[in-house]
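Provenance and format

Records in this collection were gathered into a single text stream. Each protein contributes a sequence line and a token line. The two records reproduced below are adjacent in the stream.
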Amino acid sequence: MTDQIHASAAQGFTAGADAYERARPGYPPDAVAALVAALDLGPGRTLLELGAGTGKLTRLLAPSGGRSLALEPVEAMRAKLVEAVPGVEVVGGTAESIDLPAGSVDAIVVAQAFHWFDAIRALSEMHRVLRPGGRVALVWNRRDESVPWVRAMGEAIHRAAAGEPDTTDAAWRESLGRCALLGAWTSAWFRHAQVLTRAGVLDRVASVSYVAAAAAPLRASVLDEMATILAEDPGTAGRDEVELSYDTEVLWAERTTIEPGVDGVVASVNANGGGVPKPPVAGASVGRLGLDIDAHHEPEPIHGGLDGAVCLYAQEAVERVRADGHAAFPGAYGENLTLLGIEWAALAEGDRLEIGDGAGPLLELVNHAAPCQTIAHWFDERRIARSGKVNPQDARWYARVLREGPVAPGMPVRVVRG
């Protein structure tokens, strides 16, 4: 079940693929070296690049050796990628639905693309396809807008924006903290400069997805404004070539790997005002009737109440369900807590889950949550029959709250049996 990519990204990057290849910068050698070291790239290792674009980073990492896989869902960009890096193996799907088996890659890199992803779905897929000990790296080139003409360039570009995700948004960075499927993130910064002709600067502007996707009059207006900036700004006026400076950030983190047993972690806390999926949140307070920021469209007796206050699911189950061709990710099936590292099939009614080493809530398992039509759209041919009797390893649990307290991603979880 392959998901559609962001419509604006598809339209913009299709229209702007040529300009993207001509005018987008590569990455500085010291940043590339940091990536090779952080991801331990080399012979015998398999690297997957998500949102590979035209291969700006792919071609720089290829000399490290090893097997290189690239996923780029936009056909026009993918054609440029294959032309630029002939030896690359193209992988189908999207970042949220990767066409690879579980545990098949050693490292994943995402350059200039993570802000387009549905973060929790993409992070769940990364965890699934990574081997234990594998790492993920995110890479960003950010224009140095302390330079007046570059700041004016950014303002001109953003006039074409219509609410699309942006590399400068805090949203993508905040999403990393709402998921404990990867460990702590390490960050390093590098300086980068790109020398462009005046035509190259206009191409650089045209390569931005929402400029490329804009209606012709708006796109022309943005490019005309950029031409005026180049002609009039003291830093660019009269020059045939200009230097466009960037700050390059490289972040990396290791896959959270726990052998299933009685000790695990909260991978994700999920809540909303009702319905599915329940998106990840930074944390919540768990009371007798459930999470303080959560609600149900169909409350008790269907959902909620003292005996159904908290719904629980396993990340391992998410990944098994994905392996069967269905859509699955934390919160997809309405669970409040997605747990990692708990041997799900061994759980039984009356087992207790202590969260946070006594600082968080104490839950008692009551019964399995029955499959329902509300979540059927995530399943191929709406095959939702994963009941507690037939598939206990993949069934959700309802729990009552014996002790109230806070819960957040990354908190430890321990099964307590009488």
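Adjacent record:
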Amino acid sequence: MVHSQQNRDSATVGLAIAASVFIVLLTAIAAQAQTFQVLHNFTGGRDGANPLDGLTIDRDGNLYGTASAGGNQAYGCQNFYGTHGCGAVFELAHAGTGWILRPVYDFPSSSNGYPEYGVAFGPDGALYGVTNGGSCCGGVYRLAPPATICTGFTCNWQQTVLHQFTGQPDASGPSSRVTFDSADNLYGLTFAGGVYNGGVVYELSRNGTGWTENVIYSFGINGSNGEDFPSGQLAIDPAGNLYSSAECNVNMGCFYGEVWELQPSQQGWNESVLFQFNGFNGYAPYSGVIRDSSGNLYGTNSGNTGGGNGSANVYELSPSNGGWNFTSLYDYGDFGEDSTSALTMDSAGNLYGADSITGDGYIFKLTHSGNNWTFSRLHSFSGSDGAGALGQIVIDSAGNLYGTTTVGGAYGYGVIWEITP
């Protein structure tokens, strides 16, 4: 799946000869002829390499995402795949009947780079994201679009660092995309840092022309419930309550992970555990949760070590009489950790996600009909068309699905793909 350094160097040399290496214009294939197509093969150059998260879509159907490597080839930047470069933010825009990829920002150094999570649009139309670079801890950034329309293959958005994490008692290692509440406050998760060094939920609020950071909850062994390492999708409801998942600390009697809620109050934020996995119904819920309009939460976990075949599953948590009911919607039947991705729900209530362990991985759909859920594979990757789909899937107004793979593709650095209905 991941090419050797020699193969990467050869690919880079060959690609440098081609004048169109950074502008990829693809002719669309009719939906009735093919339901899956690769829209872009990452080259490891200015366009990026090894995207670890999925995409964001704007109202015009253009796609935005991050690549954990590639981009700026500054000395000292190398991700854990061994790929050089400090990372990039890219746009894949409609161009006639095809698509054109433009890098919109190259991270300049290891101290301000390694974007492992995708970007989100803020209320002001700018892109917001996180990096895992820095002297220890990573940070949060804003990318403002240029004043004029881009006509070349580079777009050069303007970056502003909103906050640089410092470890303890602050935060370290962003582990989610950012999300906004109705008052334009920004929230996110980190995998470490905080008072107990078990990760945090943080808030960034506007302060004049700047931003003020506040750690609203610290996880760790000395915390009330023994949670550690929150990660994945962070959901927010109309009342401003936050929801996601975390691993647990065995020294605190919390073995398999949990789903939690944070409620704002005049005294601060109150944390409560909504559901704790027991090993038979799952463990290690890395992907966080999404929320539907009825208040139900959906997520994935990495496996059920206590019984069955040790497989991962997709679950639903439904509010009921002051508590929460757990339902396993689908058992993957695949043994191994990290086999599931974040979920996406369409307007009909169907769920989409990815399995990244079985072979080169696959994209699935869970069709919702009454109280039943029907599983179907939409596409199985073969390596040459991508491998290791980890990130969030997005859906356009026509029902087309878009996502990324971390590796595989023509050059081994991952792809952007489309599945048409």
